[in-house]
Amino acid sequence: MRIKSIVQQRCFVFSFPIKCFYNLGSQDTKVAMIVSKKRFTHATDRNRVKRLMREAYRLNRHRLVLPDKFGVEMCWMYVGGDLPNFTQVCAAAEHVFEELQAVVNKETEK
Fold first, then answer.
1. Residue boundaries of the structural domains of the chain
2. Sign of the CA dihedral 68, 76, 92, 12?
């Protein structure tokens, strides 16, 4: 239910092949990785893509600096059609974090 509510708010940043839906202002930072069963019918392919996205998140999460008692709930959705390599996913993750940091900075200035 939580993922559904985040996606329904339609707040997102996009860097191919990752679309990151987010919800600002929660207490904790939480992340979910989503890969479509329609695009990747084999579970091993879906798991590989999720593993690449989790590693890219882990390596680049330092780029997102949040104020105290401020969190972000995120759903990272893989929207590409082919199996990616790690450099593609990592570059997209860097761009997602840059855009998300801009959104957080704009929101905290209010």
1. 2-104
2. negative
Q: What is the CA radius of gyration of the chain?
A: 14
Contacts of 71 (CB under 8 A, 6+ apart): 25, 26, 27, 28, 29, 30
- The 10s digit of each residue's pLDDT in 31-85 is 999 999 999 999 999 999 999 999 999 999 999 999 888 889 999 999 999 999 9
Domain 2-104 belongs in CATH node 3.30.70.260: no
Percentage of the chain modeled with pLDDT above 70: 99
DSSP 10-70: T-EEEETTEEEEEEEEESS-EEEEEE-TTT--SHHHHHHHHHHHHHHHHHHGGG----TT-
